Amino acid sequence: MEQVQFINLLNSLQNSDNAIRSSAEATYGQLTVDQPDWTLHTLADLFSKPAMPTGENNSIRTLAVILFRRSAFNIAHETDSLWNRVTPQTAAHCKTVILGCMQNEQDKSHRVRIAHVISELVRSSSSNSSSGWEELLPFMFQCCNSPNVAHREAALEIFTSCPNIFGDDVSKYAGVISEILLKSLKPEEPAPSPTLRAEAMSATMSFLRHVNRPELHRAFAGLTVPIIQTILDFVSQNHDAVDASLEQLVELAPVSPGFFKSHLADITQVMIKIVSSETVAQSTRHLALELIVSLTECMPGRFRKMPNFVSQVSPLCFQLMVDIEDDPEWHSTTELNQEDYTSNAMVGEQAIDRIACAVRGKTFAPVLFSIVPPMLTNAQWQYRYAGVTALSATAEGCGRYMFSQLDNILNAIKPLAVDPHPRVRYAFANTVGQLATDFKPDFQTQYHGIVVPALLSVMSDPSSTRSRTHAAAAFVNFADGASSRVIHEYLDTILAQLSELLNPAFPYYVLEQAVATIATVAESAGSLFAKHYANFMPILKDILNSSKGNADTELLFIHTFDCISMVGDAVGKELFLHDATEVMNIFVQLMVSRPQETEISQTTSYLMTSCARIGSVMGPEFLNFLPYVIPHLKTAADITPEITIVDVHRDTTEEQNQGWMFYDYDGRRIGIKTSMLEDKAVALDTIGVFASKLKAHFHQHAAHLFDVVFRQLTFLYDEDARYYAACALPPMLMSVKLANQQQQLGAMWSALVPELLRAIKTEPSISIYGHFLKTLTDLIDVMGDNCLGDAHLAEVVSIIAQHFTELNDRNQERNQQRHSEDYDEEAEESIRMGEHEETQVMMYTSELFTAIWRTHRMHFLNHFRSLYPVFSDMLNGGDQESRRWAMSFLVDIIEYLGPDSFEYSGLFRQLMLEGVMSQSPELRQICVYGIGTCAMFGGMNFAAYCLEALPSVATVILASDSRNADNIYATENAISAVGKIIKFIGFSSEQGAEAVARALNASSFFEVISRWLSWLPLTFDITESSLVHNLLCDMVEMNLNVMIGGSEAGVPQVVAALASAVAKQVLEADAETEARVVNLVRRLVAEFGQRVNVWSVASQAFSQEEVGIVQARLAAAPSS
Question: DSSP letter string over 782-839?
Answer without folding.
Answer: HH-TT-S-HHHHHHHHHHHHHHHHHHHHHHHHHHHHHTSTT--HHHHHHHHHHHHHHH
